[in-house]
Design a protein that fits this description.
Helix content: 25-40%
Strand content: 35-45%
Oligomer: single chain
Radius of gyration: 24 Å
Number of helices: 5
Largest sheet: 5 strands, antiparallel
Order of helices and strands: EEEHEEHEHEHEEHE
Length: about 210
């Protein structure tokens, strides 16, 4: 299976800076879908209801990218914010840049630079986390086989989600997709087909 890596924001972050008396507040956060993004945008507009502009941009997955200039001149705010997200390589992220106008016009170039800077600073402050595709699996084995299974899981950097000790041992775990097939063959061969891991799903997890 092909390995899939995704770069996401490590944590939500807020920054603030002043450009020619205009105050810019950049906020970046992880979003799982458009519904969540729009809900956060709504809350930010309420939080900064007295601001001159609440510009936003978000990217979700590989296909969804939206932005708003929020009455700034077209192309000077939302798109630069979105471009900052694209340049960072981060996805599943929302950036809201709030502006309090300070009385001095920045011009088109000044606005582009200011919104790009605010977005980039917020993304940098949030940090990066690399996520990969994992196969979610389950193994049922006897108590006598548990030790060997546990060694294989550890050596393959499996993420153990749950271990149940009843009549048999049931282990729920996740393993990187790129070693999925190799791991299946290893367990099948090691136990001569007596133990075959069951694939129960997929997920994206941090490495």
């Amino acid at each position: 299976m092909a390995e899939k890596k995704i770069k996401r924001l490590k944590q939500s972050a807020k920054i603030e800076f002043v450009e020619k008396k205009s105050v810019f507040i950049g906020y970046a956060t992880v979003v799982k879908d458009e519904e969540e993004a729009l809900s956060i945008i709504k809350s930010k507009k309420k939080e900064y209801a007295d601001a001159t502009h609440n510009v936003y941009a978000y990217m979700i997955g590989d296909n969804i990218a939206r932005y708003s200039d929020d009455n700034e001149p077209q192309g000077t705010a939302g798109m630069p914010t979105l471009n900052s997200i694209r340049m960072s390589g981060i996805t599943d992220v929302l950036v809201v840049v709030t502006r309090y106008f300070g009385g001095i016009l920045l011009g088109a170039g000044g606005l582009v630079r200011a919104y790009s800077t605010a977005a980039s600073m917020a993304l940098d402050a949030g940090g990066e986390a690399i996520f990969e595709s994992y196969s979610v699996m389950r193994i049922k084995c006897s108590y006598s086989d548990y030790g060997k299974i546990n060694i294989e899981l550890t050596s393959n950097n499996a993420i153990i989600d749950n271990t149940s000790f009843e009549d048999d041992v049931t282990i729920d775990f996740a393993i990187k997709e790129d070693i999925h097939n190799k791991f299946l063959l290893r367990i099948t061969d090691l136990f001569s087909g007596r133990i075959i891991p069951e694939v129960v799903g997929q997920r994206i997890d941090s490495n």
